[in-house]
Amino acid sequence: MRILLVGAGGTLGGAVRAALSERGHEVVGVGRTGGDLVADVTDPEAVARLYAQAGPLDAVAVAAGDAVFRPLAELTADDIAATLRGKALGQLELVRQGARHVAPTGSFTLISGILTEEPIPAGAAASAANGAVEAFVRAAAIELPPQRINAISPTVAEESLPAYAPFFPGMEPVPASRVATAYVRSIEGAQTGRIYRVH
Ligand SMILES: NC(=O)c1ccc[n+]([C@@H]2O[C@H](COP(=O)([O-])OP(=O)(O)OC[C@H]3O[C@@H](n4cnc5c(N)ncnc54)[C@H](OP(=O)(O)O)[C@@H]3O)[C@@H](O)[C@H]2O)c1
Q1: Helices of type H across 26-120
Q2: Mind listing the pLDDT tens digit for each residue in 134-179?
Q3: CB within 6 Å of ligand 1 — which residues?
Q4: 117 confidence band (pLDDT: 50, 70, 90)
Q5: In percent, how much of the chain has pLDDT > 70?
Q6: What DSSP character marks residue 45?
Q7: What do you get for the CA distance between the two ends of the chain, in Å?
Q8: Which pLDDT value is given to residue 50?
Q9: Under the GO molecular function aspect, what terms does this record hold (predicted)?
């Protein structure tokens, strides 16, 4: 398959790219600052240009997204808007526009995260954005067939512990390679509307 992977240069995206390449897929990596194609997917016009450049696609997968982590008492309206835009809106836009570009039996695989169900202090905006992604996946799955859509909801990756460990006390990390396996399941499998939890 020919797969557009947004965030292919990141911690999770690197593992997803490796897993998909090992299985013989052609991965077109996307990042804001580098990759096979460069685009900021929070900009709808950049998403349109991205699909125009990408050529035929069998699947779109996302392993990208920014969130603001700040205690609720200090959280600003701009923090909330930035988090919804950085984590959720870009992914929704990739599907909204992508439905016209991806093969009729192709798929979308989005990224949420454990904070949807297991909140942490300072993570309210991120939890809300993840919840939006998951609700969208369940809803879009009704209208997209024969295209499919799923989300991956990982806990913290072992590789991210140097940065994130203080935020996830007592929560068992998983290797990024295990998260990548869930992407393979979503892309090569037959299910739709599913949230694959990697906890
Ligand atoms: N790592 C974890 O433990 C973990 C756990 C649960 C969920 N998640 C979720 O998984 C996703 C990836 O996390 P990560 O830790 O792998 O991130 P990361 O290492 O920071 O990598 C993110 C990648 O996505 C690209 N990117 C970010 N925003 C983009 C945008 N607007 N348009 C295009 N490309 C963009 C970045 O490219 P540039 O650097 O070129 O901008 C980078 O290659 C995030 O949504 C995160 O919330 C991560």
Answers
A1: 44-54, 77-83, 90-98
A2: 999 999 999 999 999 999 999 999 999 999 999 998 999 999 999 9
A3: 6-7, 9-13, 30-34, 39-42, 63-66, 87, 90, 111, 113, 154, 156-157, 160, 164
A4: very high
A5: 100
A6: H
A7: 27
A8: 98
A9: oxidoreductase activity
Phi-psi category of 4—alpha, beta or left, where left has phi over 0 and alpha has psi -120 to 50? Answer: beta
Q: Which CATH number fits domain 2-198: 3.40.50.1240, 3.40.50.920, 3.40.50.720, 1.20.1740.10?
A: 3.40.50.720
pLDDT attached to residue 190:
98
Distance 7 CA to ligand 1 centre (A): 6
Q: Please report which confidence band the pLDDT of residue 84 belongs to, taking 50, 70 and 90 as the band edges.
A: very high
Q: Which residue's alpha carbon is nearest to atom 20 within ligand 1?
A: 10
CA of 91 to the centre of ligand 1 (A): 12
